[in-house]
Write a structure and sequence with these properties.
The chain is mostly helical and 144 residues long. 58% of the residues lie in helices and 7% in strands. The chain has one domain: Winged helix-like DNA-binding domain superfamily/Winged helix DNA-binding domain (Arc Repressor Mutant, subunit A, Orthogonal Bundle), CATH 1.10.10.10. A hairpin with a 7-residue loop joins strand 1 and strand 2. The protein is globular, with a radius of gyration of 16 Å.
Length: 144
Amino acid sequence: MKNNRSSCPLVNILDILGDKWSLVVVRDIFNGKKAFGEFLESPEKISTSVLTSRLQLLERAGIAQHILSKSDKKVKFYFLTDRGIDLFPILYEMVYWSKRNLDREFHPIAKEWFKRHENHSQEEIILEKQNDYKIKREELLEPQ
């Protein structure tokens, strides 16, 4: 990981997550993607070289880790650490900022997300998503 440009807390996080792709990869992991090929299927069409570098960056920053598939040791499954799970409130705020401030037509998955959560508080949504992810992570990490 590169040295931080300053002692500003905002600059420090931007040095890790301020590129075009890192938060998209974190979003995809939250949404259940684990394997390299699954990330490539996202509608944003990240290139293999950029995906490789972002996954490495997220691992070096302690935001994500990987395990090897039990059935094929060449396949890596990526998951978020507690530090990565702690990013969900940031993702939540960015998504809802977009909804409030951008006059755009959002993807059907986003529309469904907004509709499903319209009667829930921010705290409820964040806690539920973080807890759900922790359960999925434990299932992934269970020895078999």
